[in-house]
Amino acid sequence: MRKLLAVLALTVAPTCAFSQVPGCLVGRWKSDEALTLADMRKHPEVTERAKALFENRFFGRLILIFGSRHIGSYFEDEQGRADLSFDEVRVVESGSNWATLRSRLLGVEHLQRWGCENGRIYAVITKWEFREYFSPLP
To answer: What digits encode the pLDDT tens for the residues 106-127?
Structure first.
């Protein structure tokens, strides 16, 4: 029995650690301010101070480039694609249209749930767990 468990641990664990992100996340995406703020407003627990911050051009500028195992990001008015670097993405858990990913985004390590919905993607963000939506770029 121990041998069977050891074999399973050696074969299944590496597969999970290096799984690819769901295909619906792969592509170029831009933060969608209007959809994100609409979702934020569905969460009455978001404080007025936080709302004021988020409603002042906080969203709508972040560009993401998802690969099958890497992610790159930049703010559209601060960095060009020539300077873009990619960081490894580790799939912690996933389904056909969602994944919990461990990655570095803008230099900070994140454990974040991502999903796909109606041709867009979203990340569940902040302590209030509203969605930041991203629309596809050409």
So the answer is: 678 889 999 999 999 999 999 9
Take residue 48 and report the two structure tokens written for it.
Answer: 């007025």
What residue type is 63 in one-letter code? I
Cα separations in angstroms, 104 against 51, 99, 101, 113, 127: 25, 15, 10, 13, 19
* Two tokens, residue 25: 């996340």
Q: Domain range spanning residue 115?
A: 2-136
| Helix ranges, 28-87 (H) | 33-40, 48-54
* DSSP code for 67: -
Q: Can you give the pLDDT at residue 111? A: 94
Q: Say if CB 40 and CB 130 are below 8 A apart.
A: yes
- How far apart are the C-alpha atoms of 88 and 29, rounded to whole Å? 17
pTM of the entire predicted model? 0.82
Percent of the chain past pLDDT 90, that is, above it, reads 66
